[in-house]
Amino acid sequence: MTTGQQKMDWARQYMPVLRSIREEFEREKPLAGVTIGMALHVEAKTAVLVETLAAGGAEVYITGCNPLSTQDDVAEALNQVKGVHCYAKRACSNEEYYAAINRVLDARPSITIDDGMDLIFEIHTRRQDVLDGVVGGCEETTTGIHRLRSMAAEGALKFPVIAVNDTPMKRHFDNVHGTGESSLSSIMVTTNCLLAGKHLVVAGYGFCGRGVARKARGLGAQVIVTEVDPRRALEAHMEGFVVMPMDEAAKVGEIFITTTGNTSILTERHFALMQSGAILSNAGHFNVEIDVKWLEEHADAIERRDGIDTYDIFGKQIHVLAEGRLVNLATPKGMGHPIEVMDLSFALQALSARYMVEHGKDLVPGVYDVPNAIDEEVAERKLAALGIAIDSLSEEQTHYMSAWNIGT
């Protein structure tokens, strides 16, 4: 058994929800004759999703969605799975990255599964030749969905896409617990630095940011939150975090984690204010939140440890993790979200892909929520796997909750 197969075998045992779906897919073959194109982080948990789709009868073509998140041994193992074609490679150049995207599109997929919208972007710009064959897609992450909603608002989106990220089972588990735990664990294993007692700055208090902030506080960090949304800022304040502008946080922060999905969160003016030894990391999808390009143009990088580039600038040293890319996946030992969390997220992906195969031709172009029945089904399957039973409403209770004329 290769190391990639060992990783996949390890992940499978902690993914009971996806296992139950795979067993169902193997019996029913709901994806028979379907070609699925994927751009996701190619590592062990993703591989279990890919196996599940292939077990359902799909021909799957996959590449990475981040140049540094692919695990080459897992990519190699995926190519041994019947019906799977993997083109991902770690540390690929920008040209190699998009060449792999185009190899996926050369297969003319009818269903796309994206993490960051790269496939959909290519289809709508440089690869419109495959557009007519696409029934629909699924998008995994917040950043991709923001862009898809912008496309839809402008009338530019040409097929239906399910916003897998924007559903309770994704936001409250993957974004909060997955991003929170995996980002901090990756920072700790990469730097070997203590979090307890340190001033840790979290940029953005969305679901990912609040997950990072809460778990960092649990580890003893003194957490500072920066925000642009007054409601989220107030929420962070009410939950006991210090809230301030980044211009102020930059002066006291020792560890920085960006989670906004936006660009230019940490820039030249912030670097000038930081303490020597400040550690900068990004937990948003694209590597635009930290202005690494400016640092590269104004200082020579010294690799202090694997996954850490140190810049001598303004008379001090600033450390950037994973080149400003996803810290939980792009560091040398980054393993991504915990397996149990991705079991839920990839169960949503598998069931949403089946839904799109069955209903996509009836949907007009646009961004769609995950059907509530799918979201509840994933929760029910997880509870069953845990052996947890819950109550159900009686007929009287159901009637009471739906009636308007009962009175007090």
Automatic annotation (TrEMBL):
The record's section on SUPFAM superfamilies has: Formate/glycerate dehydrogenase catalytic domain-like, NAD(P)-binding Rossmann-fold domains
Among the Pfam families in the record, one is AdoHcyase
Q: Which GO terms describe its molecular function?
A: adenosylhomocysteinase activity
The alphabetical list of record keywords is:
NAD, One-carbon metabolism
Q: Which NCBIfam families match?
A: ahcY, PRK05476.2-3
Q: Which PANTHER family match?
A: ADENOSYLHOMOCYSTEINASE
Q: What is this protein called?
A: Adenosylhomocysteinase
Recorded source organism is: Methanofollis liminatans DSM 4140
